[in-house]
């Protein structure tokens, strides 16, 4: 076997090894991107759950608040009646209605704020999903880049082999 043949074989082998390494690197890059995208999708699901939990917990809180407000208003009425004042007319009625209106307003404000916070959490979820898609695209592009490098390595190895044979 001549030195030219040996050089050609080494060039081909080197090109093939380099191409193989690039192909494996491409697959690894895409696998890492997929893993990261799955984490981002999990974060999106958690944000969605947090939004739903925020609204649910506010609804539970509102039920408790209304119950407490009802008990308070009943207590005020009892206090008026014990002192000999008719609680269903005049100032006592006005105070009770104002208190009830304030309680309703507090409930509505709290519900509105919970919905706004939930909207922010849902926006975060959308951002996570968009990032997951972008991460997948980046992984696919990295894999394609490594494939191009693999082809280039094969071509360089073949070119080196032909040069060795031509010179030898």
How would you characterize this protein structure?
The protein is mainly α. The protein is 94% helix and 0% strand. It contains two helices and no strands. The protein has helices at residues 3-82, 90-167. Helix 1 packs antiparallel against helix 2. The longest helix has 80 residues, at 3-82. 15% of the residues are buried.
Taking Cα atoms only, what radius of gyration do you get, to the nearest Å?
36 Å
Secondary structure tally: strands: 0
Total helices: the number is 2
Percent strand equals under 5%
Give a concise summary.
This protein is mostly helical and 168 residues long. The protein has helices at residues 3-82, 90-167.
How do the strands and helices of this protein lay out in sequence?
Blueprint: H1 3-82, H2 90-167
Tags for this entry?
single chain; 168 residues; mainly alpha; 2 helices; 0% strand; rod-shaped
